[in-house]
Automatic annotation (TrEMBL):
It comes from Theileria equi strain WA. InterPro entries: DEAD/DEAH_box_helicase_dom, DNA/RNA_helicase_DEAH_CS, Helicase_ATP-bd, Helicase_C-like, P-loop_NTPase. Residues 150-323 form the Helicase ATP-binding domain. One of its GO terms (molecular function) is RNA binding. Residues 439-611 form the Helicase C-terminal domain. This is RNA helicase.
Length: 1062
């Protein structure tokens, strides 16, 4: 290299350093302008004198900006009033046209988004913050990028913001937007979170930082904590926003919507992004054309995300801006286990014990998969005795200077440490029974909230801020006691807030949590994270119709998120209870996209409810498999939630063919063809009235319809309570029974039942009738008491929702504290019939009735007879012809679960595209039902998926059916419809049988039928519609059928004109 080129390179490097110095000074001046008081200038000067490095990488820079060219339960509260604007509302046609996936533009790869043209007048707002709290938030890297973030959102309608954990994205960006005037007019900033605990915690955090409990609020399920008049930043779960879309598809009360933690790719989150990407386009178009409603800004945020999924997605039309915020504030040291343990709960216990015994102060966060594991580990940790005085003396020298231990000290490597028999730590590994819990504490109705609780949270957090300013790590080392706190999604708000408390001087807090603490939530004082590497994931098997929670490995991005929980105020340590080789080889890079694996029925019903009828053309961020969409569409059509497609019968499309053909040979579905065949190629989901009702019940559509059907039959309080519990149990994904090693004397056999529904009825009645010793009852029958608690909670929630949503149905008040009584025989029948109706697509026929020698059953999910399904051994002695089931389990021998025998006579009466009418019967003779104004015939009924004959059932024909017109003409002419002309029936030149025989087109009956068929006169309603226009309608044709020599024409005419009372 020449001296000249070396000098040139050195000069360029020096200029880059100067540029970076000026850039950072600019950032600091912005912070001073927007956040710091004059009294704090000394801190800025000290910060500005620190050396800056040139390369913006993860290890040396706080800030990095990238452009895109470089690279998820229902609210029933009354919401905010939408902003008023002058333009007319969006028409249905305009909305549906704009919501369609825009495929006109060819994919040309990522490119720089075009900046928007017309801009609202964003006026900044001054915020008075507490000085100490403001000092703490200014240490967050996001504050260094405030102007860049604000400008990106101001000049781009869709922005993707990524950043390392702990940079303050979730808490600071909503504040930036509020301070910079994005709440235009009556609009507010909406932020969605996946988990309820994150909504509440972040809302409280921002309330504290803004020094106001009125500007920020939250809404989760049917619990809300905000003032609708003063709230400017609203946190909510994604389900709340989806529910609001039912009534306000344009999100007119929001100026900005932030989708946080998008990396988890929950189904609700993906659907929201797909809808909002179109709504952003609509709002922008309308605003540019003069509408006063400001454009909608969509901000998508996450820490660990696969940016390509967003930047390369066609749904954004490549108009998406990308920013990235880096953090080098504190390190988190990762410690892998030498080998992966078989029982990670026991290993977690040992690791927590070692941390508490050996390491300096700092709280511990342990990640487990579910509540059973949380309670089991709590039970094990309870057996760690409080350290004795001797132990305190032995370790006093070690811990006296623990706060000065370097984070790379060997003391943090716990692999070599062993817990000796001399330590005051004892375990009883045989005592692993499931804990008794107080249902009133853990599962009480969330509607009962304390009005003063919100202010108490803010006061607690403010006190915590002051203490955290005074000391880096709070609490005790191994000389203190261990305080155990549990955190999971189904806890009450008060119970969850215990995880945000800081320890006293004589204790160390260990938080046992599911993955609710993995993202968004910043728990205070967490220095140590124990990561089991496991999570519960819901996996759906569309073929077997079952969704199960399975324990599986987390992804590498989730592991990174968990490690990011440690060391928010200092260097932290993450202890992974798995080896590095397991991590590298078995852990996926990212969590699977939920919408690719989940049951799509609820999602497609939601899309249909807001007017998106074609899910195949919807703007999915990641499209689900077409087969899964097909299965969900077929299920919704079977349940009656969406309209079944109609195909016209073109075999009888002329009047001549309708008159001369044998009417008994025409399909009973005329003018349409059989419904079942059209289900296979059904591509549109037009919602029905029933479907709209089901979309408001927070359950999967199948179980929501069970609730609907049970209520349509009875509304007594005891019946409602029992029905809701049974349906909730059937929708429950976990196991209701557990395996326990208890002696025969303690265990009891369940009574003998003929089906699972009778067993569930007995179980819930007996359980609620036990005022005491419910744990003993559960243990005796190997029942999972926690599962029953969750089932009761869901039943209560659904009941409360129905009371609010459907107040016009006048449900009897249910006292859930009272025991459930054995139902009356008719109530038991109502419940079973409702279940059978909603499981009609899961009907199984005994193989012997289908000509099979197998002892099993055949069902619609195995239509080719390739394999059979079987009853449980308990019910195998019953030789039921027909049963319904909830789902299938097993590999080699597939068995049915939640089995109920079905009555063939009842199945044949179910209105479903799977139950078909064929072959109109000559006897009993078709007849006109005057009260119902329909023609009724008897047809053979078949279960279409298995082509299985059920029985002969009476059905009503459409009034356009040729046989319906003939039967009505027959009854009309013989005076059975209108009595005023009955006296002339004896003068007819034709018999009643002549109306059902093949007719020549030139006959007198054909002349009458030709006129009636041309106007579809198949009932009184259709006839009287024409009669009102002309009182002599059909008179001449009727008169031709009489024997002319015996008819008094004038008298007949007078009777004819007065036969209908108008």
């Amino acid at each position: 290299m020449s001296k000249k080129s070396a000098a040139s390179k050195k000069k360029r490097k020096f200029q880059e350093i100067l540029f970076k110095e000026e850039e950072i000074k600019s950032y600091l001046s912005k912070i001073n302008k927007h956040a710091l008081s004059a009294n704090d200038k000394s801190m800025i000067e000290e910060f500005s004198t620190k050396p800056k490095k040139v390369k913006p990488n993860h290890a040396s820079s706080n800030i990095q900006v990238e452009s895109d060219s470089d690279s998820e339960p229902i609210c029933y509260e009354k919401d905010l009033e939408p902003i008023k604007h002058t333009e007319k509302p969006l028409s249905t046609a305009e909305l549906l046209a704009l919501l369609k996936n825009d495929k006109k533009e060819e994919d040309s790869g990522p490119r720089e988004p075009e900046q928007v043209k017309r801009q609202p007048d964003y006026k900044g707002i001054t915020v008075e913050r507490d000085f100490n709290i403001n000092l703490k938030r200014l240490k967050l890297p996001s504050c260094m990028m405030e102007q860049e973030i604000v400008d990106a959102i101001k000049y781009n309608d869709i922005v993707l913001i990524t950043g390392d954990t702990g940079t303050g994205k979730s808490t600071q960006i909503p504040q930036f937007l509020y301070e910079n005037g994005f709440c235009i007019g009556n609009t507010i900033i909406g932020v969605t979170q996946i988990r309820r605990v994150a909504c509440i915690a972040i809302a409280n955090q921002i309330s504290l930082e803004l020094n106001s409990n009125a500007l920020v609020g939250y809404q989760v399920r049917y619990n809300k904590g905000y003032n609708s008049k003063s709230c400017k930043i609203k946190f909510m779960t994604d389900g709340i926003l989806m529910n609001e879309l039912h009534t306000d598809i344009l999100c007119s009360k929001y100026s900005v919507i932030i989708i946080d933690e998008a990396h988890e790719r929950r189904a609700n989150c993906d659907i929201l992004i797909g809808i909002l990407s179109r709504v952003v386009k609509i709002r922008r178009s309308r605003y540019d054309n003069g509408d006063s409603l400001p454009p909608l800004k969509l901000v998508i945020m996450s820490a660990t995300i696969r940016k390509e999924d967003f930047l390369e997605s066609k749904i954004f039309d490549h108009k998406i801006k990308s920013l990235h915020v880096l953090s080098n504030a504190y390190n988190c040291t990762i410690h892998y286990s030498k080998k992966t343990p078989k029982d990670y709960v026991i290993e977690a216990r040992d690791k927590v014990a070692k941390i508490h015994k050996i390491l300096p102060p700092g709280s511990i966060l342990v990640f487990l998969t579910g509540k059973d594991e949380l309670h089991r580990l709590r039970h094990l940790l309870f057996q760690i005795n409080n350290p004795s005085h001797t132990m305190h003396q032995n370790h006093s020298a070690t811990h006296s200077s623990s706060s000065h231990v370097d984070d790379d000290d060997k003391i943090f490597e716990l692999e070599a440490e062993e817990i000796s028999d001399e330590d005051d730590i004892s375990y009883n590994e045989s005592d692993n029974d499931i804990f008794e819990f107080n249902s009133d504490e853990e599962y009480h109705n969330e509607l009962d909230t304390d009005d003063g609780f919100y202010q108490m949270e803010l006061d607690t957090m403010s006190s915590n801020y002051t203490k955290l300013q005074e000391s880096k790590w709070l609490g005790s080392d191994g000389s203190g006691k261990l305080k155990i706190v549990i955190l999971h999604a189904s806890q009450t708000d008060k119970d969850q807030m215990e995880a945000f408390a800081i320890p006293n001087d004589n204790e160390r807090i260990v938080i046992l949590s599911t993955n609710v603490a993995e993202t968004s939530v910043t728990l205070p004082n967490i220095r140590y994270v124990v990561d089991t590497g496991k999570e519960k994931r819901k996996v759906h098997n569309p073929t077997r119709g079952v969704s199960n929670f399975v324990i599986c490995n987390i992804s590498k991005s989730s592991a990174q998120q968990r490690a990011g929980r440690a060391g928010r105020v200092g260097n932290g340590h993450c202890y992974r209870l798995y080896s590095n080789s397991i991590y590298e080889t078995l852990f996926d890079d990212y969590s699977p996209v939920e919408i690719v694996e989940c049951n799509l029925e609820s999602n497609l019903l939601f899309l249909s409810s807001i007017g998106i009828a074609n899910p195949y053309d919807f703007s999915f961020l990641t499209p689900p498999p077409v087969e899964n969409v097909d299965i969900a569409m077929k299920t919704l059509a079977t349940l009656g939630a969406i309209e079944v497609p109609k195909t016209r019968d073109m075999n009888y499309n002329t009047i001549h063919s309708k008159i001369t053909s044998d009417p008994l040979k025409i399909s009973p579905y005329y003018p349409d063809l059989c419904d079942y065949g059209s289900l296979k190629e059904y591509k549109r989901a037009k919602i029905t009235k029933l479907g709209r009702c089901l979309s408001l019940i927070p359950m999967e559509p199948r179980y929501a319809k069970m609730i609907y059907c049970t209520l349509s039959k009875g509304k007594r309080a005891n019946y409602i309570a029992l029905s809701f519990c049974i349906v909730s149990a059937m929708s429950f994904s976990g196991g209701l029974f557990v395996e326990r090693n208890i002696s025969r004397e303690e265990s009891k056999e369940l009574p003998s039942f003929s089906n699972d529904i009778d067993m569930l009825i007995w179980l819930f009645c007996k359980y609620t009738q036990r005022t005491t010793n419910k744990v003993e009852f559960c243990n005796n029958y190997n029942i999972n008491q926690k599962a029953i608690g969750e089932i009761f909670l869901q039943a209560i929630q659904v009941y409360n929702i129905l009371k609010i949503r459907f107040s016009d149905i006048h449900l009897e008040h249910v006292n859930w504290d009272e025991p459930i009584k054995i139902p009356l025989p008719e109530e038991r029948r109502w419940l079973k019939e409702s279940i059978v109706e909603c499981l009609i697509d899961k009907l199984a026929i005994k193989g012997a009735y289908l000509g099979s020698k197998s002892g099993g059953y055949k069902c619609s999910e195995m239509p080719n007879g390739a394999e059979c399904v079987y009853l449980n051994n308990t019910y195998s002695k019953y030789k039921y012809e027909c049963v319904v089931y909830n789902y299938l389990v097993g590999d080699e021998k597939i068995r049915m679960r939640d089995v109920l025998q079905a009555n063939i006579a009842h199945v044949s009466t179910i209105k479903s595209p799977l139950v078909l009418s064929r072959e109109i019967q000559e006897t009993p003779v078709p007849s006109y039902n005057k009260e119902k104004d329909v023609v009724e015939v008897y047809t053979k009924k078949y279960y279409a998926p298995l082509n299985y004959y059920l029985n002969v059932t009476r059905v009503a024909l459409d009034h356009k059916h040729p046989l319906s017109i003939r039967i009505f003409a027959q009854h009309f002419c013989f005076g059975l419809v209108y009595g005023r002309i009955a006296e002339y029936s004896g003068l007819l030149a034709v018999s009643m049988d002549d109306f059902l025989k093949p007719i020549k087109f030139s006959s007198k009956i054909a002349m009458l039928l030709e006129e009636m068929i041309s106007k579809n006169i198949g009932n009184k309603k259709a006839f009287e519609k024409e009669y009102r226009k002309n009182k002599l309608f059909l008179f001449d044709k009727y008169k031709n059928l009489l024997k002319e020599s015996t008819v008094d024409t004038e008298r007949l005419k007078a009777s004819y004109e007065s036969m209908v009372e108008l």
